Amino acid sequence: MLIDTFGRVATDLRVSLTDRCNLRCTYCMPEEGLQWLAKPDLLTDDEIVRLIRIAVTDLGVTEVRFTGGEPLLRPGLVGIVERCAALEPRPRMSLTTNGIGLKRTAAALKAAGLDRVNVSLDTLRPDVFKTLTRRDRHQDVLDGMAAARDAGLTPVKVNAVLMPGLNADEAPDLLGWAIAEGYELRFIEQMPLDAQHGWKRDGMITAGDILDSLRTRFTLTPEGSQERGSAPAERWVVDGGPHTVGVIASVTRPFCRACDRTRLTADGQVRTCLFATEETDLRATLRSDASDAEVAEIWKKAMWGKKAGSGLDDPSFLQPDRPMSAIGG
Ligand SMILES: C[S@@+](CC[C@H](N)C(=O)[O-])C[C@H]1O[C@@H](n2cnc3c(N)ncnc32)[C@H](O)[C@@H]1O
User: Fold this and answer.
1) Structural domain count, the chain
2) Residue with the nearest Cα to atom 5 of ligand 1?
3) Which residue has the higher pLDDT, 221 or 201?
4) At 210, which CATH number?
5) C-beta of 190 in contact with ligand 1 (< 6 A)
6) Protein residue whose Cα sits closest to atom 12 of ligand 1
7) Mean pLDDT (whole number) for 248-263
8) Average pLDDT in the 178-202 region?
9) How many angstroms separate the CA atoms of 69 and 152, rounded?
């Protein structure tokens, strides 16, 4: 089991399959892109499946989320999902994606054993999408989401980040649209994880701002008990139900105390947190012919050292060296 000194147990594994992306979201990376990882530094498909097998069979992981970069850019994705679906016990598997290319692969991913997807979409306006992502691919994302829904990769969750001066006014429109399409919308506060280090606390759109904006059109009531456990999103029932909306207040109301996550970068480093400043190299361990038991021990030791919180609310907070795209969002 992956337990830390605060008694938290990590059962949710985020696996980055690549640091590359086909969008250039302004809150994530610069227009020219980044220095991508070299191919020999990336874990191979076999190495990824081996680490997921160790996590699931020896370390108590029950949920696997594939992410990136853009995970649909990984050529072996469907095969990786298929091999992980054959593991005993079988983990629940999801994918966080920008949706570009999902129209082509949704049915194959479902057949391989993927359970569901989270698709990122910040705006309903194609011109704003182009400004925000620096690519003219709005319709591809909408098509990808619809294909995921039709393939049964449900519930399709939509992740939206609001940016001042760009899409900050779109919260009610996005919620109305998501309800009409049968998607579950979640807003994520913008975090200091951009490669350009341009994030500013002042002026960011907070969970409070988002809820105020939604309440101009909808009645929101807290879902269930106020305890959100390890779920990062606080959820509200919309207009009496059955639809809900989530808000992930990573900055203003972090959920570190109940965190159940462990992360693996595309180059095989274990991270205990998005904001961790240290990593543990599992790739070197794998490539030194270590046994599964040795790999598991190193992973456990890494998680034992997990810090109490992200440190975002501490004045001495330092942004990690790697941006979100290279960690795996
Ligand atoms: C880094 S992306 C990786 C997966 C995939 N490419 C996608 O678009 O979903 C995962 C999520 O992180 C979000 N994200 C990226 N940078 C962020 C930031 N600085 N603050 C908050 N969310 C961010 C994206 O909007 C997306 O929903």
Assistant:
1) 1
2) 97
3) 221
4) 3.20.20.70
5) yes
6) 329
7) 92
8) 92
9) 24
pLDDT at site 30: 94
The CA-based angle 297-230-296, given to 5 degrees, is 10
- Any ligand 1 atom below 6 A from CB of 2: no
Q: How far apart are CA 160 and CA 174, in angstroms?
A: 9
Per residue, the 3-state secondary structure of 3-18, as one string, reads: ECCCCCEECEEEEECC
Q: Which residue lies with its CA nearest to atom 10 of ligand 1?
A: 329
Rg (CA), the chain: 19
290 Cα–ligand 1 center, Å: 33
Of the two residues 203 and 299, the one the predictor is more confident about is: 299
Q: Distance, CA 135 to ligand 1 centroid (Å)?
A: 15
How far apart, in whole angstroms, are the C-alpha atoms of residue 8 and residue 148? 33
Residue 189 CA: nearest ligand 1 atom is 21
Residues spanned by the domain of 43: 2-327
- 117 Cβ inside 6 Å of ligand 1: no
Q: What are the DSSP E strand ranges found in 172-318?
A: 184-188, 220-222, 233-238, 244-248, 261-264, 269-271, 280-281
Q: Over the stretch 40-62, which tens digit does the pLDDT of each residue have?
A: 999 999 999 999 999 999 999 99
Closest ligand 1 atom to the C-alpha of 250? 21
The pLDDT of residue 151 is: 98
